[in-house]
Design a protein that fits this description.
mainly alpha
């Protein structure tokens, strides 16, 4: 009983964190399939952009592994449930979006202006 009394703040905080994670996971699962995919693609676009900036051109497989590590760190359960081939397809879609953004948006192009030959291979 003394343990509960001494650690009640930590226990309540832990219960709140667990409750928030369960609630957010439940809300995500209720989303339609297309909307889930769009949210994942938006996140992958951020990760792909970060990998491109960090690793540069000509390091495609390293960048894919980097993005996979970022994704599974953020969503460990989804990362375990999603087949790697599906993940690669989603990353390819995010890459197409990134390349389109670079071509169509001057501000995005400026981010990569220092990099030469930005190509994901």
């Amino acid at each position: 009983m003394e343990f509960l009394y001494n650690n009640i703040g930590i226990i309540i905080a832990l219960i709140c964190v667990i409750g928030a994670v369960v609630y957010l996971g439940y809300k995500f699962m209720l989303l339609p399939s297309g909307e889930k995919t769009q949210k994942i693609l938006a996140l992958l676009l951020i990760f792909v952009t970060e990998a491109e900036k960090e690793l540069g051109a000509g390091t495609g497989e390293f960048k894919l592994s980097y993005v996979y590590d970022l994704f599974t760190a953020k969503f460990p359960i989804v990362g375990k449930l999603m087949p790697y081939t599906t993940f690669k397809v989603l990353v390819d879609k995010a890459l197409v979006t990134m390349k389109d953004l670079i071509k169509s948006n001057q501000n995005v192009a400026m981010i990569f202006a220092k990099e030469e030959n930005i190509i994901w291979k």
